[in-house]
Amino acid sequence: MPQPQPDPFGLLAAGREAYRRRHEAGRERVSAGRSWAITVGLLLAGMAVAVPAAFIGTLGQLVRSLGSGLAMFAIAPLVEEICKALVAFWAVDRRPWWFRRRGQILLCTVGTGLAFGLIENLIYQHVYFALAVDGKAMTATQVATVMAFRWPVTTAVHVVTAAASGIWLARVWSRAEAERAQPRIGTGIGWFVGAVSVHTAYNVLATILELAGSFD
After folding, report:
1. Angle at which helices 32-65 and 76-94 pack, to 10 degrees?
2. pLDDT by residue (tens digit) across 125-176?
3. Counting beta carbons within 10 angstroms of the beta carbon of residue 10, is it exposed (0 to 12), middle (13 to 18) or buried (19 or more)?
4. Which of 207, 202, 83 is nearest to 154 (CA)?
5. Which residues of 151-181 are buried (b: 16+ CB within 10 A; e: fewer)?
6. What's the per-residue H, E or C state across the chain?
7. Could you tell me if 88 and 44 are in contact, meaning their C-beta atoms sit under 8 angstroms apart?
8. Domain segments of the chain as ranges
9. What does the alpha-carbon distance between residue 31 and residue 36 come to, in Å, rounded to a whole number?
10. Residue 49 and residue 39: Cα distance in Å, rounded?
């Protein structure tokens, strides 16, 4: 059982009490209706963040083509998962009283993940692969085959990993609500680690399928 931190001058206790009062005051200001309105705003903000974040995916494809497996299999999944959870993370960490239910947090992350997957696929299809076809590096048939895989599978991966990040943040929020204390980001962090791991595993699988000629 963890030992309580020494607090000879009562500073930690005073800080906790000040945060508790701030938290309760925040909840009083935010009605249930306003909470849902804020959630919709956070969802839209997350979708806006997904636009530049999706370009990271296409950059990852370029980096991979230049031979950097580390960027494709380690760095890119981490950065993309951070981007998808960024807005919800900020809200849970700085304004947890904005939410009333765990489902609101999941809505923010899953909606952002879906937007990310759709935008990334559009960029691949109409920018990256279009340039590849113009340069004779790919045929239209190859593009159609790849996109037939990417639209359902890649989009689903982004939604699933975003949901895992949402579960992590929901657990952080639930603990903060129960304790009326500052959110502890380490609570349930394994869900976020799992999201990054699934994303990395997907990148490895997609690369293996490509090298095996599955998209030719």
Report:
1. 160
2. 998 899 989 999 899 999 999 999 999 999 999 999 999 999 999 999 999 9
3. exposed
4. 202
5. eeebbebbbbbbbbbbbbbbbbbbebbeebe
6. CCCCCCCCCCHHHHHHHHHHHHHHHHHHHCCHHHHHHHHHHHHHHHHHHHHHHHHHHHHHHHHHHCCCHHHHHHHHHHHHHHHHHHHHHHHHHHCHHHCCCHHHHHHHHHHHHHHHHHHHHHHHHHHHHHHHHHCCCCCHHHHHHHHHHHHHHHHHHHHHHHHHHHHHHHHHHHHHHHHCCCCCCCCCHHHHHHHHHHHHHHHHHHHHHHHCCCCC
7. no
8. 32-211
9. 9
10. 15
Tokens representing residue 35 in the block: 């909470």
In the numeric block, which tokens belong to residue 144?
A: 């159609």
- The CA-based angle 3-181-167, given to 5 degrees, is 100
The model's pTM is 0.88
Token duo for residue 78:
């981490």
Q: Any idea how long the chain is?
A: 216
